[in-house]
Write a structure and sequence with these properties.
This protein is of the alpha+beta class. Helix content is about 20%, strand content about 25%. The chain has helices at about 5-20, 35-40, 45-50, and strands at about 75-80, 85-90, 95, 100-105, 110-115, 125-130, 135-140, 150, 155-160. The longest helix is centred in the N-terminal third of the chain and has 16 residues, at about 5-20. The termini are far apart.
Amino acid sequence: MQTRRNFLLSASALTAFAASGQRALAAFEITRSEEEWKAILTPAQFAILREDETEKPFSNSLLGEKSDLLKEARVGNYHCAGCDLAVYPSDTKFDSGTGWPSFWAPIEGAIGTRKDNTLFTTRTETHCRRCGGHLGHIFEDGPAPTGKRHCLNGLAMTFRPA
């Protein structure tokens, strides 16, 4: 029998779980156990993609992704480091000065978003739509044409030149 107390305790537990940022395994095409993720990701990638951590600013080579020979940005796509889905095109990348790779738009249908209520504020988290890997956050201070800044962790992605 469901008592008021049990109902309130259950609702509190469900709310706490949802607020913790845990992803439901069944919600994504690619699902793996924690052990499987740890076997294919570096410890730093696991912390970012699976535990929603953030890398230090100015610490990732994708921030200044350029051709070594031409010293200019290369054309290609940034892929999720967890499942290799192409998530951001190089032609939407810009230098935001924040220390993280930034884009004004993703590849259509490649990402998902959700509210992130950590750090005493509400932000919009962006994740890979196929595996749920945490990529970063979206802010409203980006350039035209979208006005969005997708501020991403470089370790959450790999670059594939066209």
